[in-house]
Amino acid sequence: MADLTHWTLNRHIAASLLAITAAMAAAPAAQAADETCFKTPTPVMSLGFGSRYEADSKSRSDIDEESDAAVTKALKPIDQFIQNLAKVVSKAQTEKDIATRRAYHRCVVDSVYAWAKADALNDMRTFNAKLSIPARIGGLAILFAESRDQVPGLHDRERIVEKWLQKRALEIVYFFENEATKGAARNNLRAWASMAVGEVGVLNRDRGLVEWSILSNNTMITNAATDGSLPLEMNRQRYALHYQLHAMTPLVTSVARLCEAGYGKGGADLDKLRTMAHFSVKAVKDPKIVQKINGKSQTVKPGLKNNLTSLAWLEPYVALTNDLDMEKEFASLRPLSNSKLGGNQTNLYDDQRISCTITVQN
């Protein structure tokens, strides 16, 4: 009996030790899972705010500080969401372990799915909210695109995200075709809309959305001055160079990504785009170049190093044009990153050379 009792006790002790060992092993695994993602924020359903600028500022260059703060506050939850997604995508790009890399991609798909399922961003209540949302839809679309089809078993969720983005893209097109002012329909805001609509078009193989994006990009390039400056942005007085860069960011990215997806450049003048890129970089190095155009000192601090986020488009630009002289300008400043373009652009375009040969047939 004593031996039986002793054996039973040892068995219970062994079972307990096994349970403790299993729990200890599970703890790091759970912690690792947590470290591959973040808590998905509550989906933002509606936005409604005024302009960042004073009501009587015809050039939209005089900031209303109170209104500016209100706009930034309203957009912060969305922008923070995009920044968090970009960090995860950037981690996935360099992760060697397949399981961990898939966990990162699953995080992105699941997080965007939560917003798609809720039909987030479906109620843009003001004109300025409608102007602001394309850059966010574009960022979400690119980040989702980088994680789509990377994890088995997420097909149904991915289709829901694609259709949600398609709804938002169609709303953007309607707004810019029917409600946007003449200036907004042709300036940097149109470039952000074009990037968003084109990216969603690629995701859904929606030729209509892709063609709208291609036409928008071509119009932006055609309307640039021969020196590479964008006249509508040069009118923004002290903020002219800021908005030149703000337009180049989605424009170059959109052209590059549409070519990479096999839709071609749609007749876009890449030589002129090169002129625009060189003008922009020269002006960042010496903002007086823009001051000579509009007579106003610029808010942009001189030097490439001081404007890396605003110059992240140089990575897709070099991948698209193979402009090695331009690459020398910023090679020592890598990595370049911008959350609304998909995070770490240096990793994303890592020595790529993008062809504009048309391969898509639909």
From TrEMBL:
<keyword id="KW-0456">Lyase</keyword>
<keyword id="KW-0732">Signal</keyword>
<dbReference type="Pfam" id="PF05426">
    <property type="entry name" value="Alginate_lyase"/>
</dbReference>
<dbReference type="InterPro" id="IPR008397">
    <property type="entry name" value="Alginate_lyase_dom"/>
</dbReference>
<dbReference type="InterPro" id="IPR008929">
    <property type="entry name" value="Chondroitin_lyas"/>
</dbReference>
<protein>
    <submittedName>
        <fullName>Poly(Beta-D-mannuronate) lyase</fullName>
        <ecNumber>4.2.2.3</ecNumber>
    </submittedName>
</protein>
<feature type="signal peptide">
    <location>
        <begin position="1"/>
        <end position="32"/>
    </location>
</feature>
<feature type="domain" description="Alginate lyase">
    <location>
        <begin position="85"/>
        <end position="288"/>
    </location>
</feature>
<dbReference type="GO" id="GO:0042597">
    <property type="term" value="C:periplasmic space"/>
</dbReference>
<dbReference type="GO" id="GO:0045135">
    <property type="term" value="F:poly(beta-D-mannuronate) lyase activity"/>
</dbReference>
